Amino acid sequence: QVQLHQWGAGLLKPSETLSLTCGASGGSFTHYFWSWIRQFPGKGLEWIGEINHAGVTNYNPSLESRVTISVDMSRHQFSLNLTSLTAADTAVYYCARDLLNFASGWPFGNWGQGTLVTVSS
Amino acid sequence: EIVLTQSPGTLSLSPGEGATLSCRASQSIGSRSVAWYRQIPGQAPSLLIYDASRRATGIPDRFSGSGSGTDFTLTISRLDPEDFAVYFCHQYGSSPWTFGHGTKVEIK
User: Fold this and answer.
1) Which pLDDT value is given to residue B15?
2) Is some CB atom of chain B closer than 8 A to the CB atom of A2?
3) Hey, are the CB atoms on B95 and A43 less than 8 Å from each other?
4) pLDDT digit string (tens) for A15-72?
5) Chain B residues 12-41 with a CB less than 8 Å from chain A
6) Residue A75, C-beta contacts closer than 8 angstroms, at least 6 positions apart
C-alpha cells in the first residue's frame, strides 16, 4: 500500500512562491499519474495538475500560467511550485496518486496528509 | 470544464437510516468516469466508489453508486457513526478533473 508524505512551507506572503514536495513509499512509482489538489477554507476541492514518472504533465488551465509540477524519479518524489500567490491561494494542499496506472484519468486512490498553506501579509 | 452540482447541501439523518446523495454534471460524462469520496473532519478525502458503481478496495457493501450521463447517485444503505461526514463526487472523464462542492451528512 503506497503511502504519501508531503512537506513544505505553510505561511507565505502575497507575491511569493509556494513550494511543496510529496514523497511516495511502499508502492510503485512508475506508470502512475501523481496529482496536486487543493481544498479551500469553504471546503471546495480544486485539481491543480498531475505528472507521471516520465515527466508528462497536465495542468488545470485556470492555474497553468502559475504552476509547475516536477518529478524526481530517483527519490520517488514530485513537487509543486505555484507563483505569484494571493490570499485566494490559501488552502489545504494535498498530493495524491491515481487509483490505476498506465494512463491519466483515474480517481485518486491515495492521498497525502495535507499541508495548510496560508497566504497573508 | 464540467461543473458538478451536488444535492442536497446537508442531510440530517439518524444512525441506521439510509442516505441518497445526488451529483449532476453540466455535460455528459463519458465511460461513467465518476467517483465518490468521504471526508472525515481533519482527514484527506477517501475513495469510496469509482466508475460510477465500483466499490474501492475495503469499502463495505452498504455503499453503492449508480448513474450515467449527467446524473449520478451515492446510496448508503445504513449509516454507521463514521459515515457522518462530507461526501464529494469527482469526474475524471474530461480534463480538467473537477469535484462537486460536497454533501454533509450530519446526525439528526
Assistant:
1) 97
2) no
3) no
4) 999 999 999 999 888 889 999 999 999 889 999 999 999 999 999 999 999 999 999 9
5) 33, 35, 37
6) A23
B90 vs A: CB within 8 A: yes
Question: Do residues B36 and B29 lie in contact, with contact meaning Cβ atoms separated by under 8 Å?
Answer: no
| Closest to B76 in 3D by CA, of B48, B101, B51 | B48
Q: With 0-12 CB in 10 A as exposed, 13-18 as middle and 19+ as buried, what is A4? A: buried
Beta-bridged to residue A3, according to DSSP, are: A25
- State residue A104's pLDDT score: 86
**Pairing relationship of beta strands A91-98 and A33-39 according to DSSP bridges:** antiparallel
Instruction: Judge whether A60 is closer than 8 Å to chain B, CB to CB.
Output: yes
pLDDT above 70 coverage of chain B, percent: 100
